[in-house]
Amino acid sequence: MTLRTSFTDAMKEAMKAKDVARLGAVRMAMAELKKRDIDARATGNMDGISDGEILAMLQKMIASRRDSIALYNQGGRPELAQAEAAEIAVLESFLPQQMSAAEMEAAIAAAVAETGASSLKDMGKVMAIVKAKYTGQMDLGAASAAIKKRLGG
């Protein structure tokens, strides 16, 4: 089952269950997906974005909501932070199982070995491999920090 199908199925289930919060989050994700598909058509990709790109989209949406939670908490708006956290839970339900810290370290070590990276100048090469192989399975922000630490930064 593709991610597109799982979005549609989740929307139908939320409608049947009258789960307004889940329905809103799924519709928001579907709207972003439709926008990106339209943008992809402009570049000649008539099939829309790939599942890997959808996973990256979901991760960006989650990161954006985490930033909003921090701002809402600073501004004394816990009810809005809670709503953002609920959206994060819905969006994360579409992502594959996240890697543990040990698995992430092993994946980074393999990417460093594969590229022969030895300094921070090689960080882009390592990140490219990590993104290509593990999008949706690890927090790329944490991976970036771990790669920088590993390469001596």
What does this protein look like?
With 153 residues, the protein is mostly helical. The protein has seven helices and no strands. It is globular, with a radius of gyration of 18 Å. The mean pLDDT is 90.
Helix content: over 70%
**First-last Cα distance:** 41 Å
Average residue pLDDT: 90
Question: Which structural class do the helices and strands define?
Answer: mainly alpha
The best one-word shape is: globular
The parts where pLDDT drops under 50 for at least 5 residues are none
**How is the biggest beta sheet arranged?**
none
Radius of gyration: 18 Å
Percentage of residues in strands: under 5%
Order of helices and strands: HHHHHHH
* Quaternary status: single chain
What's the number of helices? 7
Task: Write down how many β-strands occur, each being a DSSP E stretch of 2 or more residues.
Answer: 0
